[in-house]
Amino acid sequence: MVFFYESGERHTFEGRRVTYPDIVSRVILRAKLPGGKLRCEVAKELRAHLDDLVEEMRSQGYDEEAVARLVRSRFGGTKQIAAAFASVYAPERWARRIVQATLLSAASTVAVAVVLSGVQFIAAICTAGSIGSTLRDIYQEIVGFGMITAGYCSLYAGERLFPGSLARAALPSVSLGLCLAAVFAWQIPQHGALPMVAFACAASARLLQRWEIPFIWFAGTALPLLIGWALFGRLLSCWEFPWLVWLGLTISCKALQEIVRLFERVFMGNFA
Hints:
The protein contains 10 helices and 2 strands, in the order E-E-H-H-H-H-H-H-H-H-H-H. A two-stranded antiparallel ribbon has the order 1-2. It has helices at 20-31, 36-59, 64-75, 78-88, 90-126, 138-161, 166-187, 193-209, 218-232, 243-271, and strands at residues 11-13, 16-18. By secondary structure, it is mostly helical. The protein starts with 10 loop residues before the first strand and ends with a helix.
């Protein structure tokens, strides 16, 4: 196993032929450092450290093969180096993730509230109903907003944690859904059906949005809603059929999809 050094020079490292920048990039990628600025600083520090180490050995008369062997023994492999950096910066990385997750959840909840309130107001105007009646059960409305956000964002979180496995990606959403179902069954069994249906609709819509088939994710909001309607009857006493509920859920999930895309463009470079 030979090492690298001059920027145009190629050597073997961990069984593969790579260049000097490749080594640093691999360490930075595996270390999952929080923030682009920190990654640049660590990469610069890493290059300087390796340069100093190699120059010191060369000045002592070692040939390139001996330099490679000694650097390998002193510096270790990229996995060990990356693991050390990841351990040191883990608290900062998790703090950033918590802040970003909080921002995403807050923005998503506000978007859902605006969409559903708008749909209800428009429906009230078109049917000559009372706009004040849409605010009659404001606490239930707030719970519904949160459940839609929780269903959608929990599935998205699973995608980020387990990008290579659909089954594992669904695990956070399923676990959260079961916990919430138990809480509702214990605390408010007579009003727990609609929030859980909203949670399931949002999660299944996010799941189907992964597919490239246009509009197939509409079924994600429709199917759980219809199953809930069949099992529990009227989820809301004022509506005979859940078309308006489905419309609000569908528009909300589209708004959440755009928020997630914006979140990834703004934050994802710092999220890893």
